[in-house]
């Protein structure tokens, strides 16, 4: 039996397992089983707590299909609540090692309960902006960058007209992306507000994506002159992204859902 807790950040849901107190192997197949929405607990991803020699704690992250990914913004925000509420670290600011680099987190308490987490995703690395690709006779202008993990961002006029599953999948698997990509479509509401839907590598459609929100805010500020501090409206809720110098800050709510034992 594996003890786990489940959290969500704006509807992006995660299983978190304390690897400091439990030993188990084959994370990839465990992620696939535990994240399965019919035969498992159900989640977009699985996070494991491990000790670190580069930061105060380490987060390991797997997508629901069992693939390992370097970073997850909403996942890191949920992970921070797990760490604080389980008294693994009791400071309001701490550092977390991920495969995408060491990230700074800052927790926010409301009446002594951890409700919001702000994370610093570091410095984005832009691969290309507005590259034209043709899919099913339609030209899409895609922009790709690395912000903890790989994201492709595409501006559209009307999100409701986007067949996310079909086109998200095709862009994820374009041969210019040997390791695939996460895909975000966005609409500009005004200079302070963007609406975003995300197709995640290794998961599919999710209700929210933290690094995707950050990636979209960065590309939109370059292409549309939207502000460097914006609200990102995702299906599952709202996130705030702020770009200051070479850092991208992501802030939003996190919630504990349940705790239990997985039969594995
Ligand atoms: N949902 C996550 C991103 C997961 C990225 C993952 N699907 C990948 O393969 O890179 C977030 O909140 O940032």
TrEMBL record:
> One Gene Ontology cellular component annotation?
cytosol
EC number of this enzyme: 5.1.1.7
Gene that encodes it: dapF
What does the record give as its pathway? Amino-acid biosynthesis; L-lysine biosynthesis via DAP pathway; DL-2,6-diaminopimelate from LL-2,6-diaminopimelate: step 1/1
Q: Name one Pfam family in it.
A: DAP_epimerase
Tell me the protein's name: Diaminopimelate epimerase
Provide this UniProt record's keywords sorted from A to Z. Answer: Amino-acid biosynthesis, Cytoplasm, Isomerase, Lysine biosynthesis
Tell me yes or no: is Cytoplasm among this UniProt entry's keywords: yes
**For the site Could be important to modulate the pK values of the two catalytic cysteine residues, which positions are given?**
151, 200
* Subunit structure, as described in the record: Homodimer.
Summarize the protein's role.
Answer: Catalyzes the stereoinversion of LL-2,6-diaminopimelate (L,L-DAP) to meso-diaminopimelate (meso-DAP), a precursor of L-lysine and an essential component of the bacterial peptidoglycan.
Q: Output one GO MF annotation.
A: diaminopimelate epimerase activity
Localization recorded for this chain is:
Cytoplasm
Tree of life domain: Bacteria
Q: Where is the active site?
A: 72, 209
Residues binding substrate are 12, 63, 73-74, 182, 200-201, 210-211
Protein family per UniProt:
Belongs to the diaminopimelate epimerase family.
């Amino acid at each position: 039996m594996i003890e786990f807790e489940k959290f969500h950040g704006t509807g992006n849901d995660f299983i978190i397992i304390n690897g400091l107190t439990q030993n188990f192997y084959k994370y990839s197949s465990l992620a696939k089983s535990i994240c399965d929405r019919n035969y498992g607990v159900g989640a977009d991803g699985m996070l494991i707590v491990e000790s670190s020699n580069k930061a105060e704690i380490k987060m390991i992250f797997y997508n629901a299909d069992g693939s390992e990914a370097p970073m997850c913004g909403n996942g890191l925000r949920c992970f921070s609540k797990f760490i604080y509420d389980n008294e693994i670290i009791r400071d309001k600011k701490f550092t977390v090692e991920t495969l995408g680099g060491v990230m700074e987190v800052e927790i926010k308490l409301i009446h002594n309960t951890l409700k919001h987490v702000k994370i610093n995703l570091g410095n984005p690395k832009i691969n290309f902006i507005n590259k034209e690709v043709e899919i099913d006779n339609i030209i899409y202008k895609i922009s790709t960058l690395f912000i903890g993990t790989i994201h492709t961002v595409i501006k559209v006029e009307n999100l409701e007209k986007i067949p996310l599953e079909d086109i998200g999948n095709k862009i994820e698997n374009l041969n210019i992306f040997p390791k695939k990509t996460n895909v975000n479509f966005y609409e500009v509401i005004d200079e302070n507000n963007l609406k975003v839907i995300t197709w995640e590598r290794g998961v599919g459609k999710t209700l929210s994506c933290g690094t995707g929100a950050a990636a979209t805010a960065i590309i939109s500020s370059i292409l549309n002159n939207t502000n460097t501090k914006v609200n990102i409206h995702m299906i599952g809720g709202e996130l705030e992204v702020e770009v200051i110098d070479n850092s991208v800050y992501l802030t939003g709510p996190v919630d504990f859902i349940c705790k239990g034992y997985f039969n594995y």
